[in-house]
Amino acid sequence: MLLAGGNAADAALAAAAMLTVVEPVSNGLGSDAFAILWDGRQLHGLNSSGPAPAAWTLDYFRGRHGEDGNGAAKIPVRGWDTVTVPGAVAAWGALHERFGSLPFADILAPAVEAAERGVAVPPVVAAKWAEAVPLLKEYPGWAQTFMPSGRAPEVGEKFVFPGAAKLLRLLAQGGVREFYEGKAAEALVAWSEKTGGSLVADDLSAFRPEWVTPLSVEYRGFELHEIPPNGQGIAALAALGILRHFDLSALRPDAPESRHLQIEAMKLAFADIRRHVADPKSMRVTPGQLLDPDYLAGRAALIDPRRASFYGPGAFPSGGTVYLAAADEKGMMVSFIQSNFMGFGSGIVVPEYGISLQNRGTAFSADPASPNVAAPGKRPFHTIIPAFLTEGGKPRMSFGVMGGEVQPQGHIQTLVRMLDYRQQPQAACDAPRFKVNVDFSVNLESRDDPALQAALEAMGHTVHIDPVYHGESGAGQFIWRLSDDPDQGYVAASDTRRDGCACGF
Q: What is the count of structural domains for the chain?
């Protein structure tokens, strides 16, 4: 797209469409999406996560799936009752309408060709595909679409995706509203009715993406920007707001003491977001309260530099994913992420149009007291978060790190390496990463120094080792702008944990 005279928005959208074809294990035409874009003058945020169907109440889930041992309604992990309104296609339309320069049909053309001609399946994608077969092969449309030879494709084998090609052509000709009000919408609703879903025409036709103002915190003279809730980007902001109270640069980059401080900051941030973050209309605590400098200073004071701790949320007054970054010669920079959540998502596929539907609804809570409780027309808590870094209000880096709850953790770990330890983006991206789990235990990569594990355990951390390099530690993409003058160029980095690459000309 850049070679054709397009801008960074055109390039990002073409890549997003292509990724639904070449990496269907992580995203699809039924994904959600978020973006942060620098247009040459200011940042723009886009939240294109879809809401729950109108039918979804706790009584609905209780009637369909029963109760757990505590009397709470069960919310499933896969299937139709995890499918919220897909937002990715609407995100493409919103970004193109506001910032695109090439015809939408031209932007989608490479993905159409790839879907029709077929693509060779790369190694990490092939491994994730094979893992999904026993989990998803019985769900409506999945095996028909993703097991063309009765199994998952092998590494290097050609995968042809005719349904996706048909939908992409339809979108190229009629625009993205075809997905929400046209032929594709009719097919999606018909498949829902036929196979037990609750998604109806009004759920689709009512959806529009939301332009939002990114939240930010200052760190070491830079500003990190994230999309506001219902996403977890605020966790990265809070963790950095806590870490700025410690002199990490006085410690070695991979010293146990440095890792410990980052782990503790992440634990504090997660304790708050797991309690408070939801659809903004339902939150009882504002983002401003969660990021208040005095509040974060108080949270930082809870950290013992020598011992691991468990933290609860702070007190207030009442009141499976793909990421891509793009930049162009004029200075436009895009940070874009779209996801089906758990691998192929819900397991539901509309075969005629290749729409693989996400399972974001499983992130709702069944606790009536939670701000994230399932309700009609409500957006669930979201894990996918694009990020953007500025310096003195000027653009410096579009970046993101994929991988569920790894994402805010990846943001802070790579930024600490770049800003505290002055590592270049590829080195910061490739370096070992930790993952704080829901129970506050910590995963390390197997390539970490064994002495690090011993030192963290001596501090009181429960440590697990991930045996697979591309397993649980996420994967990032980065474009760092070298100067205020975009003509001076960019430095790009792509995570070796995935099949992606950095590409420029």
A: 2
Question: In this structure, are residues 425 and 493 in contact, taking their beta carbons and an 8 Å threshold?
Answer: yes
Q: Where in the sequence is the domain holding 254, given as residue range(s)?
A: 213-320+383-494
Active site residue 414: no
| CATH code assigned at 306 | 1.10.246.130
Q: 304 and 164, same structural domain?
A: no
Query: Do 293 and 400 sit in the same domain of this protein?
Result: yes
Residues 161 and 303 in one domain: no
Q: Distance between CA 174 and CA 385 in Å, rounded? A: 29
Alpha-carbon separation of residue 233 from 61, 194, 230 (angstroms): 28, 37, 9
Question: Among residues 321, 362, 383, 414, which one is catalytic?
Answer: 321
502 occurs within a structural domain? no
Q: List the pLDDT tens digit at each of the 505 positions of the chain.
A: 999 999 999 999 999 999 999 999 999 999 999 999 999 999 999 999 999 999 999 999 999 999 998 899 999 999 999 999 999 999 999 999 999 999 999 999 999 999 999 999 999 999 999 999 999 999 999 999 999 999 999 999 999 999 999 999 999 999 999 999 999 999 999 999 999 999 999 999 999 999 999 999 999 999 999 999 999 999 999 999 999 999 999 999 999 999 999 999 999 999 999 999 999 999 999 999 999 999 999 999 999 999 999 988 876 554 478 999 999 999 999 999 999 999 899 999 999 999 999 999 999 999 999 999 999 999 999 989 999 999 999 999 999 998 888 999 999 999 999 999 999 999 999 999 999 999 999 999 988 999 999 999 999 999 999 876 555 678 999 999 999 999 899 999 999 988 889 999 8
